[in-house]
Design brief:
The protein is mainly α. It has 18 helices and four strands. Helices cover 63% and strands 3% of the residues. The protein starts with 10 loop residues before the first helix and ends with a helix.
């Protein structure tokens, strides 16, 4: 009786059970490890918190302090040489298929754990069980699986459970999430939203939204996006088992002010990645106009202009020499495009100068709008008017 397990399920029943079990693990990673522990976007009641810790110990063997530390370092050093798992550095295949090895390597780095691992649980269970016997939970899970579903099915379910996070989180999110997909926000790193519906990986699919507002408990942002992790958090909150500490700001607009004031400045800075995403659209539209004009009047220029398309939206510091040469050659053919391109750097620089006073920053933004609106470039003027309407 025991060897065929308590439940004698058909194959599709076993598949459903496996999907259910792995989904609980995904929920534990996104809600507990990621949003609660690494980013402090919400507080969890001891009940779900202890449940997730126990469950993750049984299904992943990962240690909270190590996970939080490696992940915080990823945000702090994103896409640089010290980023533990950037596909921009290591290449997409190495992160997608071997992301778990990069994680394990970084988790062994004592300096990383010391610098970034602060504030994670340090109670009796953590010291004596979870971080000490990292394999015992997995063995326990395997025994439970075998008892419930039989030897072979139980073992296979365990294998899938163990492979789930290394593949979907360490591989797909850390790899594809910094490589392929769409961007709502022009934040400084290469993060992307893989699909708008975050179900399979608990909402982590919306990785560009996450990197733009890392301390937000909610990862969906547009009306057509869905974050199942956020749905669970709201349910926990309604049951009194969670407290949300922060969600991403929503850009709000009112009639454009004649002159940017302190309030507008504050709204623009809070929504800076939205501002830059809209700016990227203006840049794209300017290129399209200039390209159309060049095709009619100067076909030779059009070739050089068409080549800049791929490099226009990438941080200049990240371009290879050849790419930068192509970019410069293209920009040299169109004064309007050159203006819109350089004014993006000027705009981003306004809020990244940490030493400037508030009055200086405000003055710089006002000057920037004045330059934009007297540039004679339609897309730039329209953008500036929209900028003045952030509220
Ligand atoms: Zn990331
Ligand atoms: Zn994160």
């Amino acid at each position: 009786m025991l060897f065929s397990g308590v439940f004698d399920l058909p194959w599709w029943g076993l598949v459903l059970v496996t999907l259910g079990l792995t989904h609980v693990t995904i929920a534990g990673v996104t809600i507990y490890l990621h949003r609660c522990q690494a980013h402090r976007a919400l507080d969890l009641h001891p009940l779900p918190s202890h449940f997730f810790r126990f469950w993750l110990w049984m299904t992943t063997g990962m240690v909270t302090k190590e996970w939080a530390a490696v992940h915080r370092k990823h945000h702090a050093k994103c896409e640089g040489a010290e980023d533990p798992h950037s596909p921009q550095v290591y290449g997409i295949n190495r992160v997608l298929w071997g992301g778990v090895l990069l994680y394990v390597k970084e988790a062994l780095n004592k300096d990383t754990i010391k610098r970034y691992g602060h504030g994670t649980p340090d109670d009796w269970m953590e010291r004596n069980i979870y971080s000490r016997f990292t394999l015992s939970g997995i063995i326990l899970m395997g025994l439970i699986n075998v008892a419930l579903f039989g030897i072979l099915p139980g073992f296979l379910i365990l294998v899938v459970q163990l492979a789930w996070i290394p593949f979907w989180a360490a591989g797909v999110i850390n790899g594809i999430g910094h490589f392929w997909g769409y961007r709502n926000f022009e934040c400084e790193d290469a993060s992307r939203n893989i699909v708008p519906w975050g179900i399979l990986i608990g909402g982590e699919e919306l990785h560009n939204n996450h990197h733009s507002f890392a301390s937000s408990a909610k990862l969906s942002n547009k009306w057509y996006e869905f974050d199942i992790g956020w749905m669970y958090i709201r349910l926990l909150e309604m049951a009194g088992l969670a407290t949300v500490k922060k969600v991403a700001p929503r850009p709000r607009f009112q009639g454009a002010k004649a002159m940017v004031d302190g309030e507008t400045l504050q709204a623009v800075i809070a929504n800076r990645y939205d501002v830059l995403a809209k700016y990227a659209k203006s840049l794209k539209a300017t290129l399209a106009d200039e390209l159309g004009k060049a095709r009619r009047e100067a076909p030779h220029d059009a070739k050089a202009l068409a080549r800049v398309r791929r490099w226009l939206h990438i941080d200049e510091a990240r371009l290879a020499d050849k790419q930068r040469t192509q970019l410069e050659a293209g920009l040299a053919r169109s004064k309007p495009l050159h203006t819109v391109y350089t004014m993006r750097q000027d705009l981003a620089a306004i809020w990244s100068r940490s030493t400037a006073s508030r009055e200086q920053v405000l003055k710089q933004l006002q000057d920037w709008c004045h330059r934009a609106e007297t540039s004679g470039i339609r897309h730039l003027e329209e953008f500036s008017q929209r900028l003045r309407s952030y509220a």
